[in-house]
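Exercise 7. Predict the joint structure of the components listed below.
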Amino acid sequence: MADKKEVARLEDLAYQARCNLIKLCGAYSGNIHMGGDLSMIDVLTCLYHHTMNVDPKDIQMPTRDRFILSKGHGAVCMYIVMALRGFFDYDEIVRTYGKLDSAYGQHPCKVRLPGVETSTGSLGHGLAICVGLAAAAKTAGAKHRVFCMMGDGETCEGSVWEAAINGHALGLGNLVGIVDRNKQLMTSFSEDSVKLEPYADKWRAFGWNVVEINGNDMEQVVDALDSLPPVDSGVPTLIVANTVKGNGVSFMEKQVKWHCGSLTPQDMERALADVTAAHAKEMEGV
Ligand SMILES: Cc1ncc(C[n+]2csc(CCOP(=O)(O)OP(=O)(O)O)c2C)c(N)n1
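Solution:
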């Protein structure tokens, strides 16, 4: 069972990350993928602030856990969570995000941003890269894990399932896939269009150890990531993180138009008030 104080610490960090994301969106002149950022922000917070062995002062540490954001359109969410961990400077992100020649592009670039393991944005490639990283680690007898965050819409790409076959065939117990199952794609709800259910069973059929959680409940996120099988278990794990797109902001939740959008100053204040009220509720009784 997750330690209550640690869960509260992570909820507080996720709240800070939500506020920083909303403020950045309010300050930025273009559109930001708010929906899918807010759905995965709790899992990213737990990974970077609790689960993964990473060190912002030693980013190339050979024993570090590897993380690849396969849903690369959520880059800004990763930058913000990593900034809270000490990898990047939040003010610099706000000042430069999305501008020509900025290191903080709308999709992550490993060349410009040391600490980012690989460049992504074209969906469907992250898991295959992670299979390669995990296979190399297994061959070398290394003990670190390789984590891959995917979108559920992204898993319509056939390359994801080719990687899933190989993750199982190679017995990669050090490989952890996480799907942000917010049940929305870019312009539709998954069950109204591509019909992904029974989703978890699909991964089970590919031989993966599957864990289903509410990915916006920090206690469940911590429990799932604390209970991963040993790296030498020989079976890759897939966490189906059931989430809400736009989670925490009333006017963004489950709204197709909030796959990607921009905030007026008034909407920014409303969004901040929403996440602040939700966080106050979370903290009741802590
Ligand atoms: C190969 C490829 N095709 C299309 C796109 C355009 N695109 C960006 S986000 C997105 C929707 C992805 O949905 P999902 O993976 O569920 O992401 P989330 O809802 O979590 O944001 C699409 C189709 C892309 N980035 N890459």
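Discussion. The CA atoms of residues 84 and 207 lie 36 Å apart.
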